[in-house]
């Protein structure tokens, strides 16, 4: 197993090392991470099968049902991310985890994670509507909030302020990291949807693209856990065993 602190270098926030180690952690327990990642995708699959996909002249059929399913997706996404953070920390210290254990850890923080998803979603959405830059910057500021909520077991506003404290001084690098992973994921998803859509139609293409989102959700959750660990390692000298003790 690769030693994470050695891989990234002491006192260093290395984007390449973070992506590489996140992929390594993810692939060591890929079936379990994908099993968790499939849960929030279920509303998207239901939306695709029942509501359909946007079409010219009818960009958002059954808008009410679509909005409800998207809200369910967002809440589930945060809860599952909490469980994946637990899984990532266990993998980092060389211990296995089960889907059931990870899910229970996420559900144990259900209320604060739901509150966090609502506040972060509103803040980022308003920022993007008013002007794109504030919304993007808020994503960087709050990048560690879910990890803080799960690992440090803080409340909603405390998790957000703690994330702002941890990400201070590293937000440009976090932005670069998010852009690299986000753009790469978007390109692959677009290719999958285009190729699969040409073979089996737009609904089939959208379904496969949704399934690819399972992998992206898993990677994003593991990456956020490693970023949080790296920030605390740099700023506070905390090692992985001390961080993961909260789950014992």
TrEMBL record:
Keywords: Membrane, Transmembrane, Transmembrane helix
Transmembrane residue ranges: 33-53, 65-89, 110-130, 136-153, 174-195, 207-229
Keyword Electron transport tagged: no
Domain of life: Bacteria
This protein's record includes keyword Transmembrane helix: yes
Name under which the protein is recorded: Glycerophosphoryl diester phosphodiesterase membrane domain-containing protein
Top-level taxonomy: Bacteria, Pseudomonadati, Pseudomonadota, Alphaproteobacteria, Hyphomicrobiales
């Amino acid at each position: 197993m690769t030693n994470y602190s050695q891989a990234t270098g002491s006192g260093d926030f290395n984007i390449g090392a973070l992506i590489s180690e996140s992929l390594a952690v993810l692939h060591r327990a890929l079936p379990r991470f994908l099993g968790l990642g499939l849960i929030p995708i279920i509303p998207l699959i239901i939306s695709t099968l029942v509501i359909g996909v946007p079409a010219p002249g009818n960009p958002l059929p059954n808008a009410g049902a679509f909005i409800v399913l998207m809200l369910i997706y967002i809440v589930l996404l945060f809860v599952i991310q909490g469980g994946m953070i637990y899984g990532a920390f266990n993998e980092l210290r060389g211990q296995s985890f089960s889907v059931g254990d990870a899910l229970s850890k996420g559900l144990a923080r259900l209320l604060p994670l739901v509150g966090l998803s609502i506040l972060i979603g509103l803040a980022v959405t308003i920022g993007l509507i008013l002007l794109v830059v504030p919304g993007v910057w808020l994503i960087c500021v709050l990048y560690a909030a879910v990890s803080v909520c799960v690992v440090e077991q803080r409340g909603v506003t405390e998790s957000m302020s703690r994330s702002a404290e941890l990400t201070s001084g590293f937000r440009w690098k976090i932005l670069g990291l998010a852009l690299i992973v986000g753009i790469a994921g978007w390109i692959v998803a677009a290719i999958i949807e285009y190729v699969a859509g040409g073979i089996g139609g737009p609904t089939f293409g959208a379904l496969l693209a949704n399934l690819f989102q399972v992998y992206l959700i898993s990677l994003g959750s593991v990456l956020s856990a490693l970023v949080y660990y790296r920030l605390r390692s740099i700023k506070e000298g905390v090692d992985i065993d001390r961080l993961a003790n909260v789950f014992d």
